[in-house]
Amino acid sequence: MDNIGNDYASHFAQTRSRPQNYITDGDPATRFVEYPKLHELVRRKDALVAQRATPAMTLRTDLRQFPLASLGPRFFDVIVIDPPWKEYYDRARGVAKGTEVGEDPDAPPPSTPAGEPYWTWEDMAKLAIPDVAASPSFVFLWVGDGEGLDQGRKLLLQWGYRRCEDIVWVKTNKFTKRAATRPPGSVLERTKEHCLMGIKGTARRSTDAHFIHCNVDTDVIVAEEFEPGSTRKPDELFDIIEHFCLGRRRLYLFGEDHNVRPGWVTAGLGLTTSTYDAEQYHSLFCGPSSHLLGQDREIDSLRPKSPVGRDSQGGGGRGGAGNGRITIIIFPRRFLGTPRPRYMALIGRTTIPTFPIHRHPTPFHRLAVVTLT
After folding, report:
1. Which of 112, 121, 264, 313 could cysteine-pair with 84, CB 3.0–4.6 Å?
2. Does residue 308 form part of some domain?
3. Are residue 118 and residue 12 in the same domain, yes or no?
4. What are phi and psi of 306, to 5 degrees?
5. What is the pLDDT of residues 323-356, one digit of tens each?
6. Contact 4, 266 (CB under 8 A)
7. How many CB atoms lie within 10 A of CB 171?
8. Is the pLDDT of residue 275 over 70?
């Protein structure tokens, strides 16, 4: 009998068809069909987002020169940044030359497929993101698949954000079957890209449901890679953001025409038109809490809730410290040896864990301290 190997790896070596091509339920439109509750939640969220979306606006501009603060000082709830990294330029140049990525003295001038000169990490550090970011707010920074994981974290810190998630785009090649990129020094073929998510300020999942809804989507996007040389990213990132953050003031930097979307202001040199009107846009957010998507009773009943115990003990998740009252529960000695379900029912706290602190000869032997948020 032949040795049994990894069928997907063998299939990839012979056909260039990547293993991730066979992941099921990758299409967001049909992903939750077999899960009626989640399917209805996503349907209702998408309908509410579409109903409350502001008109799509574009701003064709060179972000090296444009004063971001003119869009609104400390204004935006969500900022997506898709810079034209040199990594993308090198990838596109390699495709154009029909060779693996590498230095070529006959290469064209250093610009991305969108026609904009690529940006270095030093260039990006000068981008005045703090001038337009509200608090709390979120930033989503595409960092490629190389050095960007380390450099991107440093960049977020310089802008006043702390990294809270890493969204991964796993690229399929169901239709093209073309090989993945292999930069100099890489020992593996690159079939994914990363988008770092940062948070500024504090947003607690247990107390700020008016601003964030957690646990609706995952941190993995499985989607087809675009045509050779393209820097385009999957539209599913928009869905993840709109399901998660209920802030309506959304900004996309380094956007192109395919990024234009209701509910967003898109800026960059890759656009062909400019429709942004500052006065008109800001007039859409004049009322109290008008920058929020708004609450929906059905959505709130359907959405996954974060475990209270984790939020309270973990300081409100990654968003910050919990701010609840302290409840002290003392167990009489007579409960010693009583089965856990029994004494938990006796004190009426069926979901609160307990832990021993100390023992002493008093009538009480166990103490539990619980934070309620």
Report:
1. 112
2. no
3. yes
4. -75, 140
5. 444 444 444 544 445 444 444 444 444 344 444 4
6. no
7. 22
8. yes
Give the 3-state secondary structure of residue 343. helix
201-204 contacts: CB < 8 A, separation 24 or more?
A: 201/134, 201/135, 201/136, 201/137, 202/136, 202/316, 202/319, 202/320, 202/321, 203/136, 203/319, 203/320, 204/311, 204/316, 204/317, 204/319, 204/320, 204/322, 204/323, 204/373
Angle between helices 236-244 and 36-52 (to 10 degrees): 90
**Is there a single domain that holds both residue 293 and residue 331?**
no
Residue type for 27, please? Answer: D
The CATH number of the domain where 66 resides is what?
3.40.50
Q: Which of 109, 113, 127, 104 is nearest to 84 (CA)?
A: 113
CA distance 165 to 102: 31
Task: Assess whether 50 and 105 both reside in one domain.
Answer: yes
Structural domain range at position 51: 7-302
Structural domain total, the chain: 2
Q: Which residue has the tokens 């247990």?
A: 206
Residue 106 lies in a domain: yes
The answer to whether residue 349 sits within a structural domain is yes
- What's 270's DSSP letter? B
Does a structural domain hold residue 297? yes
Whether residues 206 and 333 fall in one domain: no
The per-residue pLDDT for 179 is 66
Q: What is the pLDDT of residues 38-55, one digit of tens each?
A: 999 999 999 999 999 999
Whether pLDDT at 185 is above 90: no
